[in-house]
Amino acid sequence: MLRFLGENILSVNQLDRESIEHIFAVAKRMEPYAKKQKRTKVLEGAILANLFFEPSTRTRVSFGTAFNLLGGLVRETTGMQSSALAKGESLYDTARVISAYADAVAMRHPDAGSVAEFATGCSVPVLNGGDGPNEHPTQALLDLLTIDRELNRFGQKIDGMHIALVGDLKYGRTVHSLSKLLCHYKDVRFTMVAPDGLQMPQTILDSVSDAGHRIVLADKMEGNLAADIVYQTRIQEERFPSQEEANKYRGGFRISQSIYNAHCKPSSVLMHPLPRDSRSDANELDNDLNANDNLAIFRQVQNGVLIRMALFALTLGVENQVEKYETTV
Ligand code: CP
């Protein structure tokens, strides 16, 4: 199992099943604090540097919220242009500087490997909030926690489930990280539904296959969405070599209530890492699904706060002191 204390969380490759289950157990204990039924000051006096060099709503705000809910303070930098990186400062130097100010770092950056590079110069735990097309480990953990909780509603488990991953599986880092985490489970059936040119990278397919899971590759949604979990993704236009190339795929794979009725199971749980692209020519997950009880996208968001609280508590070594530092609500 990962030791957690003082560790960086850079990749899902660091996690085995025992580590994942330990994170989920700590996340469950965070629930009363996230719901504000209880308060804790376990991280009082601690400072999070929340460094987001690429656009984000959920990950940035939920990292900050998670740290605040544990009693800590948050300092933020958003956008490359508002940091000294724009003046040519290296990630290593930035990390050395931030280490002097903060007790933990959450970071997003457009380049693959950049968060790991930053961590080489950083003396406090660094949590990867997404490094380009590479990884998004906290998203994968919150997705997996959501899958576990949603399947529990139907008396099912992750072991033995059927998941359909849909859309941009080439550039979508969340589906890469989630697929790798699922390699720690047993007998998962994968249907990878993507247009030609955006299918899951072979390295991930190899890992999934080596874990003993069954994989079906499909290039259309029809006939391929009758899964326990249907995980839709946005076309990651910002990662394509050109807008012209991205436009070829825009609006190709849309799930609406009528598509759900026709091709999903009545119990299929719909997930999406968000943001969903709600512009009319994209619209991969239609607003007409908002009243569908099996649309789990906003439950994913809530689970994200729990996962990030758990990771801060674990990497800063306070997971067993949260209750001790409770204050009155
Ligand atoms: N899911 C996710 O990473 O969302 P943001 O880009 O808003 O952080």
From TrEMBL:
One of the GO BP terms on file: 'de novo' UMP biosynthetic process
Gene3D superfamilies from the UniProt entry: Aspartate/ornithine carbamoyltransferase
Gene Ontology CC annotations of this record: cytosol
Pfam families referenced in this protein's UniProt entry, alphabetically: OTCace, OTCace_N
Coiled-coil spans in chain: none
Domain Aspartate/ornithine carbamoyltransferase Asp/Orn-binding as annotated: residue spans: 159-314
Reaction it catalyzes: carbamoyl phosphate + L-aspartate = N-carbamoyl-L-aspartate + phosphate + H(+)
Enzyme Commission designation: 2.1.3.2
GO molecular function, one term: aspartate carbamoyltransferase activity
Keywords, sorted A to Z: Pyrimidine biosynthesis, Transferase
Domain of life of the native organism: Bacteria
Similarity comment text for this entry: Belongs to the aspartate/ornithine carbamoyltransferase superfamily. ATCase family.
Function: Catalyzes the condensation of carbamoyl phosphate and aspartate to form carbamoyl aspartate and inorganic phosphate, the committed step in the de novo pyrimidine nucleotide biosynthesis pathway.
Protein's UniProt name: Aspartate carbamoyltransferase
Species for this entry: Pseudoalteromonas ruthenica
